[in-house]
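Continuing from the previous page...

OK, I double-checked the sequence for Protein translocase subunit SecA against my notes and this is the correct one:
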Amino acid sequence: MLGIGTLAKKVFGTPNDRKIKATRPIVEKINALAADFRALSDEQLIEKSQEFKARLEKGETLDQLLPEAFANCREAAQRALGLWAHDTQLMGGIFLHEGNISEMKTGEGKTLVATFPAYLNGLTGRGVHVVTVNDYLAKRDAEWMSKVFAALGMSTGVVYPQQPEAEKRAAYACDITYATNNELGFDYLRDNMKSELNQMAQRDHYFAIVDEVDSILIDEARTPLIISGPAQDRSELYKSLDLVIPELSEEHFSIDEKTRNVTYTEAGNEFLENRLLELGLLQEGHSLYDPESATLVHHVNQGLRAHKLFTKDKDYIVRNGDVVLIDEFTGRMMAGRRLSDGLHQAIEAKEGVNIQPENVTLASVTFQNYFRLYDKLSGMTGTALTEADEFMEIYKLGVVEVPTNRPIARLDEDDAVYRTAREKYEAIVEEIKKAHLKGQPVLVGTTSIEKSEMLSQMLQQVGLPHNVLNARQHEQEAQIVADAGKLGAVTIATNMAGRGTDIKLGGNVEFKIMEAIAADPEGNPDHIREKIENDHKADEEAVKAAGGLFVLATERHESRRIDNQLRGRSGRQGDPGRSSFFLSLEDDLMRIFGSERLDKVLSSLGMKEGEAIVHPWVNKSLERAQAKVEGRNFDIRKQLLKFDDVMNDQRKVIFSQRREIMEAQDLSEIVQDMRYQVIEDLVEEYMPPKTYADQWNTTGLKAAIAETLSLDLPVVEWADEEGVDNDDVEERIQNAADDLMAQKLASFGPEAMRQIEKQILLQTIDTKWREHLLTLEHLRSVVGFRGYAQRDPLNEYKTEAFQLFEGLLDSLRTEVSKTLSRIQPLNEEQQQLLIRQLEAQRAQMDQAAAVPEAEEAPTPLNPDFDENNPESWGNPGRNDACPCGSGKKFKHCHGAL
Ligand SMILES: Nc1ncnc2c1ncn2[C@@H]1O[C@H](COP(=O)(O)OP(=O)(O)OP(=O)(O)O)[C@@H](O)[C@H]1O
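Thanks. Re-ran it with the corrected sequence; updated structure tokens here:
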């Protein structure tokens, strides 16, 4: 008897079926237009795009244009690539346009699918971003699909790391831009460190089509992209300061042991000013009280702390030229940990060892938050259904399962489970041999570089020729992939051969043609092409007869999706193929997550040496284990996202403020508002509302006004006047401050003033924001402990983060008002100098921004570092990215051994 659910599905269809059904009429419309578009000349296809744009202008919607635009794109792809898009590909394209995730099985041609919505949405001129997981794919897809877009009169750009600025801007200015998630995120951060609008690379966050969406929005969702800097070399400063510090004596300063703060006496200040002037660290006519001296003072403080508060062999030791901190609680060395804000450098200077560059976080964003910036988001993947709930909950993205064009002919075998890893690998070698002998190409999936190389050795021992595809062979990637589908080929790969690896049965014909032409430079290229194409057909048939590509996986991954991706290298576009997983009870997943029951059942079966268990029940049980892990990971991500959200909202405010400042023609109003707010706050603090005159602290107010606004005002006298209340005082201060700024405006001139205001605003925002980021980080690590006090850490965090943010805005206003009140009318030359200095500071930041680092990227401080030589890696953390460059965590890669 059918269950109610199953019955209902039979009668009404699943929601997925209904979505598919709803697109059928649109697909029919596109099909019906095919003949019309085929009749158009190449020029007319381009003219169609112009026509569509004009119709959009006149008010037609993208939805209305969709059938014609898709028909045009289909025809263009046919002409440019010789590929006639299947109906299922059109469907996938429609779902993308509607802002869904199109789940299309591996090998169904998703690269082409993306061109349809990219073209349609590109007609708006707002720029569509097609997002891939690596630079190789971005480049490959852009090159491949640019032919289609060119045939439609649309421009295609590709963005890549370390691209010259102008070229990058041009790439973003294109109708369709291919880029990796990394580069998009970094460009966004870098843009928000620029000081001129025309330096910004990205123009809009309109529509993104994310390929391998699960990998980007789920696996890597929380990877923060971090720009750190300025890795500016200040070693000379530290060294010079280190000469001065020991000269300070007790009369010069006092130290608060508890807060570890230092303050100088008048004598100390005078002494320091003179010495710093002598050393050229302080400029003639400047004092340590000038705001420009803040950095210098900070470093003097750090130097003093290094000398007076940090003791060698107690707080730190010097080992191999490094200052290594000692944990005060455990007495253990904390290798690799560095004190921040220049303190570590100050200690290095004190010990006379090499001073290592400092790094501060300038900006950061997670992928999750970056991609939520887009007006419309969509994605493609072979395998999303396992995470459908998460997509909906976090990104409001629906997942639609698009049927395959042709039935899948791949045979997915049940897992074979061996007792030990050794038996497993022996069986694998046997299996590869068997397939190889009958000519069936084999792709062997391994989980780490080490394992791929170990297996390679085993194959060498039995004399089996093969290729290895891992991060080390990354240059030959295209060639290895091109050969992997040839008769009898054996390719061992890490999970680099997952997403996007397109293995053609019989080999890649274009590569074969290129090789043949290169080998026979005298020959006629057309003849060579024809001959190779014919030979290739025979090769392809031979491989198909041998059973197509055999994917042999040597382990299961924590996530089912990764396993499916590997399987999907075989059986593409309805090709024959086969996939099989060889496992052992010693595999990580089996050891850690396989249920005890599984263990018991397997051992009670009394497996013999070399024998495997093959049973659907084992697969089910493993899948349950995987689902458990996936579920747990989802919960962790969800919780973390809530924390991220807090900072994200604040970042949006800050970045939009920056943008406003960059766009503004006149900033005087913004700074005036800031100034007024500062004044209001001060008056409120010293002359609180609803208090009597004798409760006012007018001398305090006078001093505060002098400090923050550089104004010497008779506040005390004003307050004594008959009938004067706090509002009157506030107004008088406002007027005096306005007068001061008016004088400055007159002496600087409006253009210079605008420049100065802008630079000071941007710079202060950036500095304050950076400090704030750090504080939030700290806050986040402390709130965890409050859980004990029956309070919800997330709520605590939210409240305090909000307070901190208010504090940030307060101090921002104060700082800007203070700095502006102190700028001095300069002569032309000095003025130029100041502007240049400010610009140089910014340029320095931009430069720092040009070398982004992913948080977990290895920072090879060691000059002997060689990613191919594990000996040279030192001791990477288990959660660090593996130094081999595989992109996986160390513990899942080389560290897993
Ligand atoms: N309409 C079509 N007709 C014939 N071949 C097609 C068509 N569309 C795509 N292909 C071919 O299918 C192969 C797979 O395409 P593509 O790499 O885009 O697949 P995919 O869906 O992205 O796979 P995956 O991401 O799982 O690797 C390519 O060789 C492509 O040329």
